[in-house]
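REQUEST FORM: STRUCTURE PREDICTION
Request ID: SP-0412
Submitted by: Lab K.M.
Chain count: 1
Length (residues): 112
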Amino acid sequence: MKKRDTPPPTEAEIRKHNNVPVELAARYIGWSSVTIYYALQQERAPFGFASQNPKTGTWTYNISPGLLIRYKNGDLPTYRLNEVIKMASDGVEQILAQRLDGLQKILGAAIS
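STATUS: Completed
RESULT:
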C-alpha cells in the first residue's frame, strides 16, 4: 500500500502521542509534510511550534495532539497574518486617536 493510499490516522491514534510526528500530522489534516514544516517555522500553525538550534541550524518540531485535533475539527480559532496585523494596527490607531483627542482638550482648556 502506497503512502497516499494509507488512510488518515484517527483521533485516538493522534492522542497516543505527546508530540505528534510531522508526517502523521500531515496525513491527519491532509497537508504535505513540507507545508507543516514551513507553517511551524513561520509560526502560522496554531497547533504547534518549531525551534531552531542557533549553533547547528537544525529544527525541532512540536505538535500538540489536542490542538491538532481541535484545528482539524474547526474548534481552534485561527487568523491569517494580515488579519492580525490589521487588528493590531486598528488598535494602535484607536489608542493614538484617543490620546490625541485628550491632548487637544487639555491644550484647548489651557489656551482658553
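NOTES: The chain has two domains: 1-77, 79-112.
Reviewed by: T.R.
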